[in-house]
Each structure stands twice: as structure tokens, then as C-alpha cells.
Amino acid sequence: MGQLRRKGLAALTVASIATAAAAQDGSTTIVLDGSGSMWGQIDGVAKITIAQGALRELLGTIPEDATLGLVAYGHRERGQCADIQTLVSPDAGTRERILAQLDVIQPKGKTPLSDAVLHAAEGLVYTEERATVILISDGIETCDADPCAVGRRLEATGIDFTAHVIGFDVDGEAAAQLECLASETGGQFLLAEDAAELSGALQQVAVAPPPPPVPVAVTFRAELEDTGAPLDAGLVWRVAPSGDGEALLENEAVGMPVLELAPGSYTVGALWTETEDFRETTFRVEGGMDPFTVSVSFAAPQATATVSAPETAVAGSDIEVAWQGPGEDRDYVSVHTPGQDAYVNYSYIEGGSPTSLQMPIIPGQYEIRYYDAERAALATTGIEVEPVEVSLAPPAEAEVGAAVPIAWEGPDYASDYIAVAAPGDSGYVNYAYTRNGTPASLVMPGTPGKYEVR
């Protein structure tokens, strides 16, 4: 610990006083040990002389209007724990008065360091305003007080109180006491050793610490990844520093949260309850950035549909296909050979459910599907197409040009007909629609010969 002693004194004191000088709503009081042990020497120079010189040097580096005060203890009477004195009350522009009062301090008595810090805090009105005390001491508490307990009391009752403590040529129990006082208030505890280290440190740290970084407003937005359309409902957010940092936002169900974030790396995640999909991304905040937005992208939910149809149907027949689905323009139901994208027949669903769909004329296994306008199959069901049962009962002979009744059985689909044709001819001589029922009246050819009724 000894290697850091005098350098620590300079760094802490200069930084703390410079910080207090820059703050308009806070004050700092230096508490200097004036107990008899400060006559002890380092390299032939009394510790009180070294401390006074160090303070003179650093006071010369701070603004003249800094709000400072000075308290000493043990410098007037021997053996008196109440020997605590405010030499300069904290106020702006007290630098020259503090310099003058440093020479008044002549070590004599005990070390009531705990009560001295409490006395300085009360002089700073620490329960109402931001306050800092810097204690420079070379010994253990010698009066009936507990430095740790005093630190806890000041931390609990102060508005924004901090005690920085410099142990000057101390170790063991004395160092432990001083460190506890500082840590209980959130202050620093440092050790100082000799004049040379102190002078060097003063040259290095006579600048106030930089102000804390200004946080940046970050807005979080969810969107569809293909279109960029915003999502503003059904979102649950989590934002945390990248790594193992504690979450800054956890299970927050809002549309577009906004956080003020310090510079650093962060991870944002969002759950979209509509699809139960969780997405996350990382981003970085740099000091001085303008407010910005971080987007989390989700895939659009796949539309769903159902289709139902009879298990079997007669070839060429029209069946009713019941469906549930998006029902958008240009959506349709269709019948397909399994494994084939091309349809055999189709029907738009614009008339609502159920939709009439004509079956293939070739018997076999088929699939009925629901397609959206983007040609995505949303639902499928199977159907077996059975052969058509058809029979004809024409007379064996007929007169040329005669109208002959032809008895028939069949499905009687729209536009079904019965025809007479020459054998091997794909055309016909005459035909009659079945729509008028059985028997159908069919006119025979005008030329004698062999013919087929189909």
C-alpha cells in the first residue's frame, strides 16, 4: 500500500476539489489532521509541513471562486476529543483565506476524525445539499467514535454526501478504519507516502474528471421484414447491456418503447405474441449521437386455410368444397393430380363457402387445394374420383331420318348429350341433349348404313 501513498493524496484531493468547483449545487470541505502524530517526519520533514505544502500547491490550481471550506482537529489542546474547529466556512472565493489558515494549524492533541468529518458535513448542510468532505489523516481514531458507523449515518441521511479519505503514512488498523469511512459513503480511499510522489501527482491530476456522458434517446420499433410495415400491438420487449448486464427493460408490453441510454453495446429483443416469434438484435450507442431508432424485424405470419370435400365423387361431377381462409380477391380452390402444381379444374372463391368445383373426367386419386392470390397452397385434402356409370338402349334398327327414342342412364351433367356417328368417326351426325330426360329423341342419319349411338 505504501507505494501509492503520496500520489494517492494528490490525485484524490485535486480531482475532488476540482469537481466540487465545477458543480454549482455542491460544496467541499477539507478536514486536516492536526493531532500530535502529525509532527512525525518523512525524510526529515514533518508530516504537517508536507500536508500544508501539498494543499498550498493544489489550491493554486483551482478556480478562485470554488466553494471550499477548511476544518482542523487536535490542533489547539492536548487530550481533548472536542478539539474540532471550522477555520474557514464553506463558501465561494475562500481560497486565499484557506491558504492563510493553513499556517495556524500546529499539531497538539488527539484524533477525533469521525466527529470531525461529521462536523464538516453539518457545516455543508449535507442533509439538504450535495456535499463532499476530504479527510487527510495519519492515525487511528483515538476518541469514542466508530468511523464505519459515522460513514453509514452520513450516507443514509445525506442528500448526496461523499467522504474521500487519504491515509497519510498509515497501515494496519488505522488504514482499515479510514477505508471503511470512505467506502460507506461511496468515496475513495487512498494512501500517500512522500513529498516527491505528491509533487509529481499534482502535476498529473490537476484537472476535474470529465462530465458523465449525456444519454441518447433510443426508440425501439418492430416491423415486418419484407414490407417494413410497423407493428404496434402484441409486442413484449427486453433491453439489456450486451453480455451479462442487468436488463433495463424486461417483459414490457408496449408498442414503441423509448430509453435514455449511456454509451455502450446493447441487445434488444422482442416477442410478437401473434406468431410467438422472438427476435433480437444488437446495437451500439456512442457519445454525442442524435436520437435514433432500432428496428426488430419479423416475418409476416403465414395465412392459414382449411378445405373439406366428399371422400369420393363421380368423374366430371360438380361438388361443393367448403373452405375457411383469407377469402381475398383471386383466391381459389382447385383439383390436382397429386404431386402436380398444375390444376385440372379450378373455381374462384369469391362467391363464398362452399364453392362449386368440377371433378376430372378420368377416375383416380386427386387433391383439392386452397390457393391464395400469390399461388401459395394454404390447405389440401384428398378425394377419389370414381368412374361414371352410363348405359344406352337404342333399337337394333331404325328408319333413315327417323326420330328414334333412346333410353339412357348417366350423370346428366350440364351439356351432356347422346349422339349418332359413323364407326371410327370422332364427330357425330346428329345429337340430342340429355337435359330433357330419358328417353332422348335422336334423329337418325339420312344415309343407310352401320352407325353407333354414343
Describe the model:
By secondary structure, the protein is of the alpha+beta class. The chain has helices at residues 5-22, 47-59, 95-102, 113-123, 147-157, 172-184, 195-204, and strands at 26-33, 41-42, 45-46, 67-73, 84-92, 130-137, 160-168, 189-192, 216-224, 230-231, 235-241, 249-252, 258-261, 264-272, 277-285, 292-298, 306-308, 312-314, 318-324, 332-336, 343-348, 355-358, 364-371, 377-386, 391-393, 403-409, 417-421, 430-433, 440-443, 452-453. The chain folds into 4 domains: 2-204, von Willebrand factor, type A domain (Rossmann fold, 3-Layer(aba) Sandwich); 216-298, PapC, C-terminal domain (Immunoglobulin-like), CATH 2.60.40.2070; 306-386, Immunoglobulin-like; 391-453. The chain has a 6-stranded mixed sheet, with helices on both faces. It has a 5-stranded mixed sheet with strand order 18-24-23-20-21, with no helix packed on it. α1 (5-22) packs parallel to α7 (195-204) and α4 packs parallel to α5. The protein starts with a helix and ends with a strand. The model is unreliable at 1-25 and 198-209 (pLDDT under 50).
